[in-house]
Amino acid sequence: MSNDVAIAGVGMHAWGKWGKPFVEYGVVAARAALADAGIDWQDVDLIVGGETVRSGYAGYVAGATFAQALGWNGARVATSYAACATGAQALDTARARILAGMSEVAVVVGADTTPKGFLAPVAGERWDDPDWLRFRLMGMTNPAYFALNARRRMDLYGATNEDFAQVKVKNAKHGLANPYARYRKEVSVDDVLASPVVSNPLHLLDICATSDGGAAVVLVSDAYAKRNGLTDLVRISAISTVTPTFPQTIMDMPNFSTDSANVVPAPKRTFKESIGDAAYEEAGISPSDVDVAEVYDLSTALELDWIEDLQLAERGTAEELLRAGDTTIGGRIPVNPSGGLACFGEAVPAQALAQVCELTWQLRGQAEGRQVEGAKVGITANQGLFGHGSSVIVRK
After folding, report:
1. At a CB cut-off of 8 Å and minimum separation 6, what does 216 contact?
2. pTM of the model as a whole
3. What's the rounded Cα separation, in Å, for the pair 106 and 46?
């Protein structure tokens, strides 16, 4: 039985630092997605909101908040929070109701208004919260553990600062033609290496910013699409939201230590590898079928890790693909043709949805100025906190 559902429309609000309530960005994105689908808001029977924990009461009931802002229409409602994987979990909720025959038209929307600077934990003492503990007990900010991963990559595989910088150069070039990107300016390797060191070995331009923004996806049942003459639609073929498997032998912050493999054998794959593996299995495809990928480049080094986690390259060889131009538009497997978080920054509840928006435009042939020619299959990947992660496979 196929788990495919059709994407009828996608929409975004441009990323930036706008200083407005997150709801405004979500409404713009949702209306754009409905217009793209040619569907009236009154036809929507489900709205799933991606919540943000920084924006007060409304952030915790994002589904109802967006429904109210769009105009109460009686739709069923749900709200999802999974850190950076929020958008994918929200999509999965909508997909499940559609496949169960309980909904026909779902709007999935996420938006965020972020504080200045790097993300910090919610205030208060919470001794059972790994996110709070890693900040308060270890001083382990996001850039610090990005740097640990980067240093690990350098030590294991010989990656260099120049390699990391080249990821930023590539993504900055990709993002030039993206009207929704916050940063639309070419940079050079020298520019990256001359920017301040934030957490060695990562420079400021190696690390993504925090941003305001919004994204939305309209999903419809096959029956609705047929009745309304919606044809040749891009489809979601898999959504992976797996959790880690004991024991995890590679430390993955915000956990503070790895589980021992002395008694229990190490798992066949790491947590991040299992995310993509589950998506491939559900979609019934292999990594060799993928034409384009949108991955979670919180830092330049993490993009290289994701390329291997998704089995788009052998472990330790992502730098070779980068240096050969294979991950650039026009190369063998373009990665982050949108410009990635390097050009967007983090708008947490929206970013997994933004990845799906980009792949939809790519597979439709609508990514003007950054088009991956002939793309038929795309994959996304990101990771949130506490065992949250996601991968979505989109096919034409």
Report:
1. 10, 11, 12, 26, 29, 30, 32, 33, 107, 108, 109, 110, 353, 357
2. 0.96
3. 5
